[in-house]
Write a structure and sequence with these properties.
- The protein is 35% helix and 12% strand.
- The protein has helices at residues 32-39, 43-53, 71-79, and strands spanning 29-30, 59-61, 64-68.
- It is of the alpha+beta class.
- Helix 1 (32-39) packs across helix 2 (43-53) and helix 2 crosses helix 3.
- It has a domain at 26-79: Multidrug-efflux Transporter Regulator, Chain: A, Domain 2, CATH 1.10.1660.10.
- The protein has three helices and three strands.
- It has a three-stranded antiparallel sheet with strand order 1-3-2.
- Strand 2 and strand 3 (64-68) form a beta hairpin.
């Protein structure tokens, strides 16, 4: 009697992440780096301005903080 050879089980793929529909869409949210590129200043200056203004992120995904597009004007004013 020959030993049965089993085929390896295929791992089930995880379903794609379901994002909260209440979270603003990508054009409305910007990281500090994207804001820095938009204002043509360094990332450090933008991050320091965010800390100085005590801005809260509009959304947080993992380690990334996303700020609303309306915060860009406040950051630009703080940078002078």
């Amino acid at each position: 009697m020959a030993a049965e050879v089993s085929t390896p089980r295929r791992h089930r793929l995880r379903p794609s992440r379901v994002y909260d529909s209440r979270m603003p869409t990508a054009p409305e949210l910007l990281t500090a780096s994207k804001i820095a590129v938009q204002l043509k200043v360094s990332d450090a200056k933008v991050k320091n301005a965010i800390v100085a203004l005590k801005l809260k992120p509009a959304a947080k995904k993992g380690p990334c903080n996303y700020y609303a597009a309306s915060d860009v004007a406040k950051i630009k004013k703080a940078l002078g």
